[in-house]
Amino acid sequence: AQSVTQLGSHVSVSEGALVLLRCNYSSSVPPYLFWYVQYPNQGLQLLLKYTSAATLVKGINGFEAEFKKSETSFHLTKPSAHMSDAAEYFCAVSDGSGGQNFVFGPGTRLSVLP
Amino acid sequence: ETGVTQTPRHLVMGMTNKKSLKCEQHLGHNAMYWYKQSAKKPLELMFVYNFKEQTENNSVPSRFSPECPNSSHLFLHLHTLQPEDSALYLCASSQDELTSGRGQQFGPGTRLTVL
């Protein structure tokens, strides 16, 4: 079974500062890994995904994430935060076998301070 | 526009009411999902339909009743709900359930409040 932990339920950064949102996973098979973003009063939008190709994955809005098997991590980063990045971010893991095995983390709320 | 639409966007209902949530996608996907998102809790998978057949029911109370008349439409029928059922209900779709591991497309959600 898969599981996901996200360190920090709330992260605050200043505008222009580095964004780092942490995600660690547990999976018995090579995982698929995802980051989703949820803006207020909206559904989830896929930011990026890792599907066993390149370990450094680039997504939309300048975000990227690096798959590190030895650390079982898939942290999300962005070099320079914008006010519009304020949202809830969810990491998810799947073994590719079906809906039951697509597991979301608890989420991290990102605040961007002016 | 996400490609997955949900109506209504907001719903307030009493515990004795009966209402339905609707989800629609015209992406050619064959798998559809209902999730519940409560404050301070991870997303909870409720139901999965693959090619109109229900493949998963995650121990959801019977006061929630899903219906999938075709691959493009998914309903969640609600009756005699409890205040703790208040949450954001998200619909998602994917090409088929086996490819859900490659990501799902989500609708905007229905914010449900049970009084």
Main sheet overview of chain A = 6 strands, mixed
- Number of E-type strands of chain A: 12
Average pLDDT of chain A, rounded to a whole number, is 92
Average pLDDT over all residues of chain B:
91
Series of H and E elements of chain B: EEEEEEEEEEE
Shape of chain B: globular
- Number of extended strands of chain B: 11
What does this entry look like structurally?
Chain A is mainly β and 114 residues long. Helix content of chain A is 0%, strand content 52%. Chain A has strands at residues 3-5, 10-14, 19-21, 24-26, 32-38, 44-50, 56-58, 64-68, 73-78, 87-94, 102-104, 108-113. In chain A, strands 2, 5, 6, 10, 11 and 12 form a six-stranded mixed sheet that branches. In chain A, strand 7 and strand 8 form a beta hairpin. The radius of gyration of chain A is 13 Å and the shape is globular. The model of chain A has no long low-confidence stretch (mean pLDDT 92). Chain B is globular. Chain B contains no helices and eleven strands. By secondary structure, chain B is mostly beta strands. Chains A and B meet through strand 5, strand 6 and strand 11 of A and strand 10 of B.
